[in-house]
Design brief:
By secondary structure, the protein is an alpha+beta fold. The chain has 4 helices and 6 strands; from the N terminus they run βββααβββαα. The chain has one domain: NE0471 N-terminal domain-like (2-Layer Sandwich). The strands form 2 sheets. It has a 3-stranded antiparallel β-sheet. Strands 4-5-6 form a 3-stranded antiparallel β-sheet. Strand 2 and strand 3 form a beta hairpin. The longest helix has 15 residues.
Length: 120
């Protein structure tokens, strides 16, 4: 049986470009707003199947406007580009932190393959 991890702190930086998440197992992650936006768990980004996943370019300067709790299991992030439909559960944050290098490399490869850029 897998132990559920719980956040002990979720803190948005003053410039709204970084979300810091610390877990009860001692792991801490500083997530850029851009990374969280392009890896949003929303259907708009992830689709309803892996083949429907969408590559979102132009988000280098995106900021997080709000971090709203959803019960005791997740938060909804609202971004200044109007995106506010992703619900980020604790396990999803943990996976984003654990797999950051692989996910970020995949994202950069997808941008290049589709002729997209990080810049707005």
């Amino acid at each position: 049986m897998t132990k559920t991890i719980w956040p002990t702190e979720i803190r948005l930086s003053k410039d709204r470009r970084t979300l810091n998440v610390t877990f009860d197992d001692g792991h801490a992650h500083a997530f850029s707003a851009e990374y969280l936006r392009v890896e949003s768990p929303s259907a708009e980004v992830q689709g309803h199947a892996p083949s429907e996943r969408r590559t979102v370019g132009g988000k280098r300067d995106v900021r997080i406007l709000a971090v709203d709790p959803i019960g005791n299991y997740a938060v909804r992030l609202s971004f200044d580009d109007g995106h506010a439909t992703g619900i980020y559960g604790w396990d999803y944050f943990e996976a984003l932190g654990r797999d950051r290098d692989r996910l970020w490399a995949r994202y950069l490869d997808e941008l290049a393959a589709k002729g997209l850029r990080r810049e707005p």
